[in-house]
Design a protein that fits this description.
11 helices; five-stranded mixed sheet; Nucleotidyltransferase, domain 5; 19% strand; alpha/beta; globular; 339 residues
Length: 339
């Protein structure tokens, strides 16, 4: 490994504790993910304090497993990177504190990584031929973001959510339909059985030429529809509701993403984030990109969820650009701009 740059990457921004060993930014030797989905199911969503507690219990075993699976030791690491923004502050602090302690003890550089940059960089791992510039659509439980990626560390936010992120809206609608947790994948599964044109839920595009998103009104439209049906004692076809709501959200995401790529003269569009695993979004975006002559890149499902490998990739490009955080001064931030 002496001719290569090896990093240990740590991710703990929400309810997955993950550590990965990544070589030269794109070659993943290990990517260990310990999820808390079953723990939070009982509450219908992530409970921050419980998430932090489990990160604390899991972080060291996950790091040890990542190194063992990669077949390397601490002495082989060139630097450590960690998600330190944005996310649940208690969860972020667990990962950040662990990374700081290791970097200090090993006397190697430490890089703080933006979580959304990590999601975008997951595509570099999945697609070795991918290089910037390109348009990026990041869709997750907490983020709906359109970015112009001009270089490996050069990002411009062009549009973002003004209220509910797409994934958050999916989860809320899944909850009122009684689908359980995590709602997004369950809503996607149910939607395949329904008619996406059954109910004309509103598509919200905001001001002319705006690249921002707003899904709160569409979500409220679902709630009003369900309440109206129940007040009239009429049956509700949950599959049609799921399919129609999903279609309304996806149409807005796809339309704005493709329009931005055209406006910026980009011939590549990258999809990223937890909701990038949504089948309707992937299929609709693929069709729209093919029609527009744009090449679509999307990661496999394992790289859509929060994971250490994507953080290792993002950290590598920050490292190569000369970034280096003071080991004992690196802090965690619940909110932080992508730029």
């Amino acid at each position: 490994m002496k001719d290569h740059i090896v990093c240990l990457a740590i991710e703990s921004s929400c309810d997955e504790t993950s550590a990965a060993v990544v070589v030269d930014g794109r070659r993943v030797l290990s990517n260990i993910i310990s999820t808390q989905i079953d723990i939070h199911k009982a509450y219908g969503g992530v409970v921050p304090e419980i998430a932090s507690r489990h990160h604390l219990n899991n972080i060291n075993p996950v790091i040890d497993e990542a190194l063992d699976s990669a077949g390397i030791g601490f002495k082989d690491l060139d630097f450590i990177c960690v998600t330190n923004r944005p996310g649940l502050i208690g969860a972020l602090l667990i990962g950040t504190a662990s990374a700081k302690a290791l970097a200090y003890a090993l006397n190697i550089p430490l890089i703080g990584v933006h979580h959304i940059r990590g999601h975008i960089c997951a595509n570099y791992i999945a697609h070795p031929e991918l290089e910037p510039p390109f348009t990026a659509l990041v869709v997750s439980g907490g983020h709906s973001t359109l970015a112009d990626v001009r270089g490996y560390t050069d990002y411009e936010i062009v549009g973002q959510t003004r209220d509910d992120a797409a994934g958050e809206a999916f989860d809320k609608v899944a909850r009122v339909l009684g689908l359980g947790y995590p709602g997004g994948p369950l809503l996607d599964k149910l939607a395949r059985e329904g008619n996406p044109e059954a109910i004309p839920f509103k598509r919200v595009y905001l001001e002319k030429d705006s690249y921002d998103f707003s899904f709160s009104g569409t979500k409220t439209g679902v709630l009003n529809y369900l309440n109206s049906k129940r007040q009239k004692n009429e049956a509700v076809n949950s599959a049609d509701v799921a399919a129609s709501f999903q279609a309304a959200v996806v149409e807005v995401l796809v339309t704005k993403a493709v329009r931005l790529a055209k406006d910026r003269g980009r011939d590549k569009l990258v999809l990223a984030g937890g909701v990038a695993a949504n089948s309707c979004l992937r299929e609709s975006l693929a069709k729209a990109c093919e029609k527009a002559g744009i090449k679509l890149f999307a990661p496999p499902p394992v790289l859509c969820t929060d994971n250490g490998a994507m953080i290792g990739c993002a950290g590598y490009y920050e490292y190569m650009a000369g970034a280096k955080d003071e080991k004992m001064n690196l802090d965690a931030f619940a909110n932080a701009p992508l730029e």
